[in-house]
Amino acid sequence: MPVINDSKIDPNKILPMKYPWARQHYKSGVANNWTPEEVGMQKDVEQWKSDKHLSQTERRLIMWNLGFFSTAESLTANNIVLAIYNHVTNPECRQYLLRQAYEEAIHTDTFIYCCDTLGLDPEEIYTMYNKVPSIKKKDDYVVNMTLSVFDPTFKTIGIENIQKFVMDLVGFYVIMEGIFFYAGFAMILALKRQNKMIGIGEQFEYIMRDESLHLAFGCDLINTIKAENQDIWTQRFQDEIVELIRKGVELEKEYAYDACPQGLLGINADQFSSYVEYIADRRLERIGLVKMFGTENPFPWMAQSVDLSKEKNFFETRVTEYQTSGNLKWD
Fold this sequence. Notes:
This protein is mainly α. It has helices spanning 20-31, 42-49, 56-87, 91-118, 122-126, 128-131, 133-145, 159-193, 198-228, 235-259, 269-286, 302-307.
């Protein structure tokens, strides 16, 4: 039962499962369940309305990241529903894709919630992908990589078409979610570390935890397709993927310098660019390719934002872990 191109499989029959990694990603996603309304935003509102807390650079950085993510999440959701789900025939993988599509809807709702709470102009936020060149370049880059897969006549039959499908997965999972998102995460979480816009920072922490699972699933899916269709993994195809990732890194570095030209307290665009190189190397290795940059991680604290438990002290805030009561910890 291959993960794609299995004409004999009953998509309604999920048992027995062939790919336990897909099931585990689904369960991990459920354990991380959250909604934006759970996050307190009162302090953010006070800081946003005051002239004392945020510089103009910080305000623009927040606006740009809300603008980029609000459209990028929609692009990713459309790709899952309209392209990937159609071509992945394995039931447990499809179950995870449904879970991911729900999470993308939560992320989109988060930006609606942030706009409403802060009183932002939605027209300004949701049109940035057309008005800010470095945002538009990133969105266009991923979309142009994957246009052929949206053709209603496209089938993942034959080496060339399987390569096109894998390219779609690389575009959205590795480049969009695995690279383009992470400089934005670092920018917002750098502000949170300074006690600025901590509500939005917490929203981004939850989104990043979801995205870390999306990335893991996407890489596992790519590696499974590679293992089951070994003829696609030619040196030429590998070189093409490496070049696409290299170009993605350059676009993200360009965005980092545009969004943070003057730097933040103790952090600057050079460090954001180094972080992009560091995570790009990790993405390359995750799908069996040689790392390109050899850059050290300038932000080791970023890992904490993924690794921290969602469970919180009962006397500090309400519990936001959606598991059975026997699994909750109250210490």
